[in-house]
Batch of 4 targets.
Target 1
Amino acid sequence: MKPLRLKNCQRDIQASRDAAGVPHLQAANWLDAVYGLGFLHAIDRGTQMLFSRSVAQGTAAADISGSSELLETDHFFRRLGLGRLGESEAEALSENTREQLQAYCQGVNDGIAGVGRTLPIWATGFQITPWQPSSVLLVGQLLSFGGLAVSQMQNERLLIDLIHAGASEEGLKELFTPHLDDVDFELLRQVKMASQLSDDALEVLIDLPRLAGSNAWAVRPQRSASGGAMLASDPHLEINRLPAIWYEAVVRYGDRYVMGATLPGCPLFAVARTERLAWGVTYMKGDTVDFFVEDCRRTDDGVWQYRREQEWEDFTVREEIIQRKGGASETLLAYENPQGVLDSNPDERGPGYHLSIAWTGNNAGSGAAIASWLDVLSAEDAAAGMEIVRECTQPTLCWVFADREGHIGLQSCGRFPIRGGGHTGLTPIPAWDPANHWQGFHPTSILPRIYDPPEGFVATANENINPPGGPMFCTQILPGYRKRRIDERLQQLDHATLNDMQSLQYDLISLQASDLVALFLPHLPEGKLKERLSGWNFSFHPTSQEAPLFQSLYRNVLVEIFGHEEGIGWRRMVYLCSRAGFSGMVVAAIDRLLHQEKSCWWRVRDKGSMIHDAALRVDADAKITWADVNYFHFTDRYFGSHQVGRLFGFNSRQYPMPGHHATPFQGHVLQTAKRESTFAPSYHFVTDLSTDWAATNMPGGPSESRFSRYYNIDVPRWFSGEYKKLHGQPEPDSPPA
């Protein structure tokens, strides 16, 4: 262990780094410990925190760079009012929670003062202001909306775009049944659509902690070789932009400890364990954001109004001045009412139907979520932890727990609107009918939960978690390939070990491929394609030559069946199926439909003949491997896209990405003209509650400095599947897990 020099530290704490650079913090009590965590975040990830806060509060174009994409994201977040409730929410926190946040913020500010101006701070001319409790809440808002709810919003907007573009009404209704059964297609085609976010601006959002998919499971003692409960968790995010999203830490205070993945800017442990309890989280994919259709008009004196039944009311107009580094400031007018905020300025598109956006996180009380993250650290067992996190208002998550006594559980959380008129929330509905408005929020007592299931394990992987006959918390249903594979493997393990848990986290078998190859084979022409896919084990290992063959066939089938101009259109279909991890709602709906015998999509042409014709366009002699098509480069999130970054080696060599969107190791890469985006395990964590250690690895390291040996120190472990040990109790250095 290497002691850390804590310049400007104002409390009695000690810190050191292990061989992997993970900081180990020792404090007398929790308030000193949370101060120390803030201090460590500041010295290792200060730039990441400060830049994230600027993005969240919509001042990035003034603080960081006057680039067009940052200006666009400033407009986006300021229109939505992401940071408007920060101060009032901080004031509304309990005294206990506020005391902890103040200690954390003191640690952040003392750490930043001790470090001084980092290279990115100096290069951008960024002006540092103190970290405050409202800053913590703002980073939480950024995670909840920019990293999660925005993906729901973008998929809902994608559906509106398909309707606007004239895609087959009958075909879309069948594809997304029953969500579109009562949708007024003609009304939606009349809506004046705001411009979509540009690719550059979307990539700023992708750069946020965005749980595109994750895995977590727990095993009871009767299925464990050690006799202790075990937990495994691996949240999936973009992983090719360094520094890594997560910051590992081991924190000891008094006779207690907590260790795992923390989020710089917040005193929370997303995936972690204490001496009594372990937890991991996955994105529930809960629908907490809705579009409404507003009927708008402008009065003779220039006032914009919205209709409620036959009456007209004035919008509340909020004026936002957006500064731009090196350029003139811009004025944004946000038009609001109790149902939401218009997605554009009606002056630019004129009277008529406009979309408005509503998000539950913009309601009072959302800031209290941080209390759940703090309180769970002191939970004594799984049942207590589940009760605490059930009240977490945002983001929508599935928490998996395992405790020292052998209990396991799953608890979902989030604030879900009670939607009026029986609507699901997937498509916009008229706001002029008060019956369509939100009618409050569902009680947390009805949120899905599982405790000590008889099968001896519990797992979640972004599957459909809607209760039978209950509210539709999730509207963008994924097919559950990863969940099925995890359940399948856990069912086979009567005496599971940590090595089994690690192997499952690196599992590359696709049940999507297994299902669809069985569907495709009877219709394939005799020859090499059929022979090669018949003998494939459905692994998306980088060396596999059948994986790219299947992917080529799959995309050709989708374009052949759904890409005609009376359907979705071939250009849009190519776009969608090349972004399977990003437009999962559409691809998942298509996968379900492909297994049906009858459909309007193959009413004119037989499904089997279309699969046959698609196969004729596949090069069955191709010898390329999955690594040849599914690869990526690590790059620095501050300098990687700039000439100075390329000059000083901020971009890595090409790496193969194992897996794809339907394998437990979700390795999805999106190649665009300007950059690569990835979704993959951002942290691997497994632990046995009969011990006091955890095995981990991550695609990165503790430091945000490209010139630090701890910048990407864990990357070789992440690729090889090797795990390191984190010890809750002080122990000497030990060999890999």
Note: The chain has 24 helices and 32 strands.
Target 2
Amino acid sequence: MKRKDLKTFFDAINKSSDKVIETLLSAYLLFGIFLAIFYDTWLIALTSGPLILALYFVTKLTFPNKTAHHYVASLGLGIFMAQFIYQMHGLFEMHFTAFLAISIMVFYRNWKLFIPIVLFVVVHHASFAYIQFIGLRDNIDAYRNIYFTQLDYMDLQTFLFHAGLYAIYAIIMGYHAYQLHKDTVNTANNIIELEKEKEIIQENIQFANAISNGNYDTSYDLKDGDHLGEALLHMKKNLQESAQREKQDKFLNVGLAEVSEIIRNSENQEQLSDELISYLVKYLNANQGGVFIKTEEHHEVKLILKGCYAYERKKHFEKEIIPGQGLVGQCFQEQQFIHLTDIPDNYLNITSGLGKANPNTIIIIPLIYNENVEGVIELASFHKIEKYQIDFLLKIGQSIGSAISNVRTAEITSKLYSESKEQAEQLRSQEEEMRQNMEELSATQEEMQRNSKEMEETLTALNSGELLYMELDHEGKIKQVNTRLASVLSIEGRFKNLKYNDLVDSRIASSGDYQEFWSNLRTGREQRGTFTLHGDSGNKLILKGSFNPIFNNSGRVSKIILSGHDVTAMQTLIDSLEKLTDNKQVKDLLSSVKELEQVNNN
């Protein structure tokens, strides 16, 4: 633990201990004045005590963030002991004020504070005992009457016993202060660690909430030992990747669907080219684009700009390219897409409100159908075109090539067979109708197969899956139970002899609410909720689901279907959490569990 963190705890301890010491010093001052009334020792009572308090508070104010005044207090308490001994003319009981002082000094949890008072007491006792002894030996009244002890003098044995007991007591109290200091440090460590863990947990909660709200760009400062945070970061990375994949898949699927729609609604090459390039430039957030379609005149192949977006009008008229000419001609000839990020000067200018500028990215895609290039799409952008966007362009290239080929074929066919237009239209109509019928027939067959498979899977799930299922007649007699529910309630082989009432607590079965419950079912009203069933072996099942009435051809309830899920473990967990302490995080966790349960139910 850092010294700075410990200082916070010991500052609080020192603050409360200062109040105790200041009270004791003030009490000693008043006690000295009180003694002066009886022994006429006003001079020492009114000088020694106030000077000690003044020195204490001056030191405290001069060094506000230090412990110097603690040592002053220790020395001052020793001086007070000497004062009381003098005022009481050597009364031995006054020596106990030094013991009291050491006991109070333990509050600071600093054994070093005992050094000043112990040294003072030892020096005081040794010097005064010696002075009194000299006074007795040499018959000096001034030395003999220093009021150190009521005995004639303190011999060496008495002094050693006296000083030894005090030293032992000081050592015991010093060791106690040392242990208290260690315990305080350990307690402070534990509290700070708990606070850090609490802070980490709060950060984890905030980070998890941000992730749950889809804010994957939220940063998180991972700390040592924060395994939950590490797991959350890993989860965030996976969710980001999943979201990115989902975004790219959505981009691809939406783009394919909308391009298919454009192709389907286009009647000629010009309409197809204009609508297609306009859509692609906007969808890819590009700035400029063009569709070049292959044409043949007198056995000469050319690429004609049929559709453009944001091209200058002058360039629109000039865009006829032969195979191999420029990047577009090179793409057509080599049947390979071209992706440029280092654009030659004046290759292509994009005009905006800020003037003209070269693009940062150019992508040129060949439109291939049956190994023949039907055209080329060129796109230019100020920003980078991502790989998944290029993959999208390559994927639609074949579809567009096919569409161009189909449109061209349709135009040629229309031109060559204009005389048989009516017959061709009729044939096309019949073919379309037959195609639709075949598609509908195929779709119907697929739907029937899918429904058959789903029915088989449903039956299998009812018997072996997690769903609990029971069929009752309108009187509540059990007709059918799936394998899982029968196993949980231990009623295999004999459920047909039971009624639903046999599985319900007798007190509930006899209640008015239960009778109303069955009345609602018999009148065809669905009942949802959590239901508790009891098996033969005393085992209890908590089922969350619904009772659904099934009507016959006459509109009456012929049977009732109970279906749901086993929530016994979840309910037991919720009941256990509700018995815990009122801790807010526990409540929040319980609330989250219930909300999750509600979401799952819905």
Note: DSSP finds 18 helices and 13 strands in the chain.
Target 3
Amino acid sequence: MDGVERQESSSVPGAGPARRRFLGLCAGVGLGAAAACEQVAPAHRSAAPDARLPEAERDRPGTADWRIGSLGAPDAIAGYADRVSVAPGEEFGLSVSTTAAAFRVSALRVGWYGGKQARRVWFSPRIPGRAQRSPAILSGTRTVRADWPRTLTVDTTGWPEGAYLLRLEAESGHQRYVPLILRSTHGAGRTVLLHAPATWQAYNRWGGLSLYAGSDGSYAGRSLAVTFDRPYDQNGAEKFLVYEWAAVVLAERLGIPLAYTTGTDVHADPGVLAGATAVVCLGHDEYWTPEQRRHVTAARDAGTNIAFLGANTCFRRVRIEASDSGPGRTVVCYKSSYTADPCFPARPALVTTDFRAAPGADPESSLTGVLYEGYPVDAPYVVTAPDHWLYEGTGVRAGAGFDHLVGVEYDRVIPGTAAPGPLEITARSPPGVRRPAQPQRLGVLHRGRRRRGLRDRHHALGGGPDGGHRRRQPAPRHGRGHPRLRHPHHGEPAARLRRGPGGPPPPGATPQRRAGVRHRPGVTPARAPCGGGVRVSSGPVRSTMAACC
């Protein structure tokens, strides 16, 4: 198709049941399986919506050819945007390096689109290619910067809000993605999908270094700050595709009113959270600034429901700082080297280490209801409260277990630690950690002071002070499934359970990295990272759902 389609669709008034179905699907079943349902009915639609809003897209034809056909060598083609997100109508720059004579760019919006799962809303003309210079490394923080000149400027006028994959297409046939969020400016009455670019960047090893490892692979040689002024490694959008893509496809398929933003945007301006029905942290969302945490907590306390679809959420405290290219381009996290952080010791609340650690200890459980505890883990998800609304329509019974659904990391409820409110346990898991660790709990809903299975992995829901719910799951392998898979045993489209991750890997995953298997570069055992899980806040009951991964 040429240019941007302007086909009219319809809005989604009061999609409460669909939103609840979405949270239920995300809760105890593994998000990939949830997205797999082939008969999910969208919310009722009526008048034609604003073309910039996500619901304007739902009846438009998709683009089957959106995946990468061939990566080629790392230098075949790569690039990055000078903005993590833009509002519809704003411009952004792309810096591209390629060994090909020329390339093109396709802007692919992620959604259901009748099962095609993306739509091309724009493509560029042929652009001459050139190989850019090698990256520079800033000695003080070992930060890798590409610092390439801008190759082209892209105008997003006419693009609807949503999650985009910009596919760089070299004439040699090789391709790579650049992720971009077309953020919403208003989220009142909507479910806000919160993307995690700070975490994407923390694990990015383009140029040889990340916040986990140096060029020699050692933890000691790791970067202390990383920048968005460089491409992402592998296919260019691996963390988005593994942890967030399936949730976006599912949410769009269900037809609920959506808004899109990122953690770095909420850090700078929480306006999109005002009046939101729910906020969904989509997957592995480990790196938060104190400002982002404060803004999300305030939204919860004002009555917005919060769902966390991954364990280890809000585990690392970071700062977002400017670079030579502009504001908000650098993610700073000194971790165990926090005494070298310029904020130490004068400003302990801004020292970049684990939230629960000194000098400014503020455990993440006060937001999430649970604490990250273990990696790696491979355990079943065992239902303990089958009558809870999370499991409506599934037919599950108490004691029903789903093998391999909990992993590769997990959280659990720990008595005596800060919590947002009473929790309820809806599922739990027996021990299954592949290193010395305590038993864990899966589905935990805390109500009052009753807490059971204190050392099992937990799936938890808890309440905020003003009615906002939060939901946290025992880290089922969310986001790793494929929206077209079906569970062989349960016919209810609203919430099918799948036994383990199963199915093909998400698009872009390398064949050897089976879904649900190791998701991060090598880490020293003493500093094991944290990962996926689920927490959801919903309705006037204001509960929190927690998950382990």
Note: The radius of gyration is 22 Å.
Target 4
Amino acid sequence: MESEVLLSVRDLRIGFHGVEAVRGVSFDVRAREVFALVGESGAGKSLTARALLGMLPREATATGTVVPDLSGARGRRIALVPQDALSALSPVHPVGAQLAAAVRSVRRVGRREAHALAVAALDRVGIADAARRARAHPHEFSGGMRQRAVVAMATINEPDILVADEPTTALDTDHRELVLGLLTEQRESRGTALVLVTHDMDAVGRHAHRVLVMYAGRGGGVGPRTRGPRAPPGPVHRGPARVPAAAGPATPARRPARLAPGPGRPPPGLRLRPTLPAGDGRVPPTGTAATAVGRPAGRLPPRGDDMSTPLLDVRDLVVRYGTATAVDHVSFTLSRGETLALDGPSGCGKSSTVHAVLQLRRPASGEVRFEGRELTTLTDRALRPLRPRMQPVFQDPYGSLNPRHRIRDAVAEPLRIKGRRPTGAQIAELLDRVGLDPSYGDRRPHELSGGQCQRVGIARALACEPRLLVLDEPVSALDPSVRAGILNLLADLQDELGLGYLFVCHDRAVVRHVADRVLEMREGRITRAWRPR
């Protein structure tokens, strides 16, 4: 006997400026089930999910039916776990206060009871010392901890339908299972229906009851996960892109294998670089959506550099938040043209380390030397000329960009801060370098996919002609095929410009593919150093 239908979608169509992004999607959501929307970046999954909540952008036009209309019951009958945790959390209020406010917006409870429920919700999603962490602000959480906090916020009022838009992409393997387990527990204990928007086929295989595969805005029919739904041909249907688990030893003298995106046309406006070395006329293999393709040696540092001095030298770095130590006497060096990876679970101190390297947060003690110059003793004014030479690329591609600025203004902003007047040709060249059509300069961030926004973030960093890129989980929020494109782009830029990369990641497969050396972190300390084989 089938469960009660909680939500029914028929012939849903969503367009922007006359172009349809979702094209006639229909499905039902039933009580106590996990219904998965699967597809690559730009397939229309997130737009479809947001239509269920009545949260489409104002410029979107939508036709079709969603019955019942739950847009007036958000937080009570239907709730969202967004991919972008920063968009759901206020930067000026403690996390616990925000969860308590979510409780009081739906239930008639006092402040103390609401705060107690907020602490309990944080504890359920695996945030250690939840009572203390509830008093912290979002910027004091790691990316993974922020994602768990928004899961806690969405589930705290026990809604009938939970829409989870890529809820685990920012999490390491252990916490990914914890969050999926929490969502499953909510479904089993409360009869909650879970709409899971994801490109993680392993999660779909373990948790989903029914699946709708989307490609280019179309749905291919709903089916159980065991048999698989009928779907239009495309990269996701043929198999998810996977980074090779091991790509051979990676040193500055030998590049890792290049990833070739799978079959299917790239998204409009995206310029793919060649997937084979020049002169090699072989056709890339097409059995999977991302496969390793050999590349020649590269990573030559810029001419005139002093190779005897490390690009970055960190010694006994300590970072504290109040009385809590987030980074405990961490030391490492990074050479020009090298990729050094920081690996470890969410909350282990990776992001705090790179924030201290960039002097976005001043360390409690220790030294950070960039190109031989000690940074921790410099004033903000003295640091200003050095900042363009060490640029960050953040985990959240949308949160890194001002939503009101057009892409051309976002890319030009670093140049204007340096006192330059960028020309249209310079902006077009930067966009072209990261594989975007210059016409995308007229768009705003919400009109781009996550992978395209991440390319814009890289273009902003390159505008300052840096020597060091600090990449804080740059591909964790992206689907596998888009992830392969970003990793290829970073490899190309390192070949071309001799950049040093400090690469933060919790995905061991990605780490093995990109890194020359790896430092594993646990509880704020480096516990192991190794080279990928």
Note: The two ends are 52 Å apart (CA to CA).
